[in-house]
Amino acid sequence: MTIAPTTRASLLLRLRDPADHDAWVEFVSIYEPVIYRVLRRSGLQDADALEVMQDLLLAVSRKVESWQHGSEHGSFRGWLRQVARNLVVSWVRRQRRQLTTSPIDLDSLLESTPANDGVETDEFDRELRRSLFHRASEQVRAEVRPMTWQAFWNVAVSGLSVTETAGKLGMTTGAVRVAKCRIVSRLTALVAELEKAT
Fold this sequence. Notes:
By secondary structure, this protein is mainly α. The protein has two domains: 1-135, Rna Polymerase Sigma Factor, Chain: A (Orthogonal Bundle), CATH 1.10.1740.10; 144-198, Arc Repressor Mutant, subunit A (Orthogonal Bundle), CATH 1.10.10. The protein is 73% helix and 0% strand. The two termini are 17 Å apart.
């Protein structure tokens, strides 16, 4: 798999080729954690969320060839959100037929129409951004020296002071600040690129 992020159009085009294993690995690595967390927050148990997620990935593989970006189709992210919601509704219906009760209120779920600017959209986008940040972090971490990454991590994530970090790592305070700024800048740019790819 290439390290450089692909554009949305190129990734979707690559997904249309079932033999392009790398495209599917990239797609799944971006969306699987997002979809799983959203499904769990919809009320599904772990095994059920995994089952619905597999249905969703199967639906993507079947429909990606005919999906087109445009005003009538909306964004790929919006389409994926809608497919996920529809699969949850279908799953709940199946459960309701099999059991007399369901932990999820189907009527409320069916009555709620997902809006492009609603809570459901915000949650999906937040989860996607988290997933993209983790992906970008892995990439940036592989690009820099371990000490540079540790300096960034100590200050930006762990909350240590620049002085404490410099002392722990045997660096100057200026080198710690530069490491943090460069990595933050690189992460910001990479997340922005990856967001365009989704």
